[in-house]
């Protein structure tokens, strides 16, 4: 298992999923450690300063791995949260490393995601890197914050910038994925164990989907696909002022911050309303998208 968990939530999810395999398979857990470590909670502009390199999937540095890339593993689990609609920098760094390409080649891969609610774009990036490594994605589990989009934005920012996972002002829901959903993630371990024991992974994702391993909100998917394109424009615009940590980037980072908050709180409700008004005209396309993003196939 290879994971990056800044707050610890993702590691809790992976730990619960893998309960069914404990004592029945040898488990090796590689916790990715960035150099320098990304802070938790995030402070000041540092959070926004991670956006350009994250979106552009530019590798950083990691502490030396504990695993032996020459070792032959039967199955590899990749667990990750979502940063700016993209994979977190530490996981991108791992997947682009020579060690990852060596150990993953020819192996079945399962991804486990913990997100607010937008993850399909990041998973497409992960699929591309898995394919580049010569591995095969055979299963995906995605847990999300099931609260409404706008309150969940407020609570995730509150949690990420204060480290407090309580009810803001006593009126907002708890941030992140619910403890109930994290605890019940153990159910996904049983089809994984069966596939591992038999070496048959061809129907694993189908079995996981039967347990509701993936839930996609059509309106959120539509917004995310548009947002992913816009984020790339912003990342290139900000990087014109230098690499991460360059103070010359700060004015543009602040512009991005206020742009994003404006879009989330004022534009996204209108976009959502328009989506549902026009939904019947794009029903077939929407269903195709939902089927594709729920699966493990990859459009190169």
Key traits:
13 helices, 48% helix, five-stranded parallel sheet, 9% strand, alpha/beta, 300 residues, Rossmann fold
CATH fold description: Rossmann fold
CATH homologous superfamily? Flavodoxin domain
What is the helix content? Answer: 40-55%
Compute the number of strand runs. 5
- Domain module count: 1
Overall pLDDT score: 95
Question: Describe it for me?
Answer:
- The radius of gyration is 19 Å and the shape is globular.
- Helix 6 (120-132) links the parallel strand 4 and strand 5 (136-144).
- It is of the alpha/beta class.
- Helix 11 (218-239) runs antiparallel to helix 12 (250-278).
- The two termini are 26 Å apart.
- 48% of the residues lie in helices and 9% in strands.
- The model has no long low-confidence stretch (mean pLDDT 95).
- The longest helix has 29 residues, at 250-278.
- The chain has 13 helices and 5 strands.
- It has a 5-stranded parallel sheet, sandwiched between helices.
- The chain has one domain: Flavodoxin domain (Rossmann fold, 3-Layer(aba) Sandwich), CATH 3.40.50.360.
- It has helices at 9-17, 46-49, 51-55, 89-95, 98-104, 120-132, 149-162, 179-184, 189-198, 204-210, 218-239, 250-278, 283-294; strands at 2-3, 30-31, 76-81, 108-115, 136-144.
